[in-house]
Write a structure and sequence with these properties.
With 618 residues, the protein is of the alpha/beta class. Helices cover 49% and strands 8% of the residues. α16 packs across α17 and α16 packs across α19. This is Glycosyltransferase 2-like domain-containing protein.
Length: 618
Amino acid sequence: EMSPPSCDGPTPLSIVDLCPSLEKCHEMESVWESPVDRPAPIRGMYRQSSNQGEPRQFAKRHSSVEVVKEWFRRRSSSVKYDAESGRKMTWVEAYTGRIAKPAHAYLRWNLVFTFIILVMLTSAFWLPFIPVVGSASLEICLAVLVILHLLWLAGMINAMSYTYRLIAHKKRRAQRDVKVPINDHLKHLVGICLYKEPIQLMVDTVESIAVQPRASEKISVVVGMEAGTPDRIEKELELQRVFGKRFERFMVTTHPKGLPGDIAGKCSNINYAMRTAVKMLREDKKYPQFEKGDATQLLITTGDCDSIFGEGYFEALEEDFTKTPEEKRDHTVWQSPLFYAINLHNSPFFVRVTGLLRAFFMMGYLIPWNINTMSIFSLTLELYEAGGYTHPGYQMEDIIALIRWSLAVRRQCTIKCIPVATLSGPTSGHSYVNEWYEWARQIRRWTIGAAEVFHYFAVKARSLPFFSALGFSAKFIFYYGFLLCIGQIYGILAPIVTPLMMPLSVNGSSDGLLVSAQLFTWITLGFLGLSYLEMAAVFIVNRVAEQTFPGGRRDDTPHWRSFFHWIGSVPTILMYCLVELFAFLEVTVRGKSVCSHSASKKDQLVALPPSQNKVYPI
C-alpha cells in the first residue's frame, strides 16, 4: 500500500494517475477485434491498488462516485461501436470472488457495543455506590426513563407523519392527480434472491413488479438463486415461463458455492446476481442504456422474495428522483415503508406484535434518522457501483449498505421515503413451538448482523467527516442497543433494583435527593402504563395504514384477538430484548464464527384456501 507522492499543493488526481494500467488498456483498443479478445481489467480498478503501485489514498480527495463516472466517461471514448447499429460493443469482467482481508475473530469493535450495553443495563446495581452521584440514583434512573419515552414520542410523531403521507399519495393516485413525467430516460433493474423459499412466494413477488406501469418497457428483473437451491432448474424454468416476456429483460443467475471471500446469505447472492445482471446489460447491444449518445439513467432496486411491491412504486420513485436536485442524487437512497402484514392474522401474538413494531420503527426511526435501509430500497447505479455493490463477507445486506454508500461519497447518505406501502412476510413455523423458535432465530440473526455492521462502521468511520460519523454512531447505538436491546429490560429492572441498592450504599438512605422511594415507585408504575399507551399507538398506526396496502390486502386479525395481543405487547418487547441481549453476548464470546446467514422459513406465508388456514388462539 502506497501513499500519494507529496507535493507543494493539492493536485487533482486523474483517472490515469489512479490506475496507470488503464492507459495500457486504452492503447490496446486499436487491436481489439471483439469483446472476446479484450483483456480482463483490474477488478475494482477505481478502489484497489495494482502491482504498479497505484495510490489507494485518492478517495480522500475524490469520492468513489466521481471516480466511477470519470472512468466510464474515459472508457466510453475508447470503446468501439457496431458499424451498422451504432451501439456500443461493451465487455465487462465476470465476478469471481474477492480477497478477504485478514481480521481478528474475537477482538472486534462489537465488544465496545456490548460494553456500552452492559454498563447501561447494570447501572441500576452499581450507580448507588458511586460517591457524590450515588445519592441521586433515583433521579438519574427517572431521567433515563424520561429520555427513552421522549424518543418513543418522537418515533410516534414520525410514524404518524409518514402514515399521513402514504394515505395522501394513495388518494392522489386514485384521483389520477399524480403527475409523473414521461421519463423514458429512466430504467430500472430489480434484484431478488431465492434460496429454499417456496416458489409461489417468488412468483407473487415478481408478479407485483410485473403489474407496475410500463414494466415491459422500463423494468428489468434478475432473480438470484444459490447453487444449493432445491429444484433450482425447475424453478428457473418456471420463472422464465411465467415472466420471461413480461419485463424488458428477465434474468436468472446462480451463485456458485465457494467463491473467495463470500459467506452464505443474501449479501453474497445479491452481490453476484446484480454484478452479473449489470454485466449482461452492458454487453447487450440492444439495451438502450448503452446506445450511442444516450443518457439513460439506470436505477437499482433490491427486494426480498417474500415482498409485495405497492402499486405505482416505480412511478413514485421516478417522481421523487426527478424532483431531487441532480447534485443530491448520488448520495440519496429511496426507501418504501415496509409492513410485515402477509398472513399476519395467522401468526401468534409475539410474531404479530414484532411485525407491527418493525413497521412502526421503520417509519419512526430508520427512515427519518437515516439509520439504515431495509429489504426494499432504490438508488442510482453509480452509487451502487461506487459502494462496491453489496459486501459478500457480511450477512445483513440492507443494514451495511448505507454505510458502504456513505463511505463511497464521503458523507452521510440520505434516506428519502417513497410514499408507497410495500408488504413483507413475518417469521413463520408449522407449529406454535416452531413459530417461537423461528421468531427467536430471526431476532438473533438480526442482532448478530447489527453487531458485525457496527464493527465494519467503526473500522471505516475515519473516512467520514467527524460529525457525520459521530451522529451516525449515536443513532445506531440508540436504535440497536438501547431501543431494541435493553430499553424494556432497563425499564423493568432499574425501578426494582435501584431502590433495593440505595439502603446498601454509602448514604444508607432509600430516598433520593428530590424523590422519595415511594414516589419513585408510583412514577415508574406510571411509565409502565405509558408503555401500553405507546403500544396502542403502534397498533393504531398499522391499522390506519392498511388502507394503503397493495392489492387491498389487510390484517384480518379480529378486534378481540388484537386486544389480547396488545396485553401481550410489553412482554413481547421484553422477550425481544432478552433475545437481543443474548445474541450480543454470544457474538462477544464466540466472535466471528457466529456471523453466518441462517435463512428463516417462509413456507407458511404462501396463501392457502380459507379451509386450510391455521390461526393460533392468541
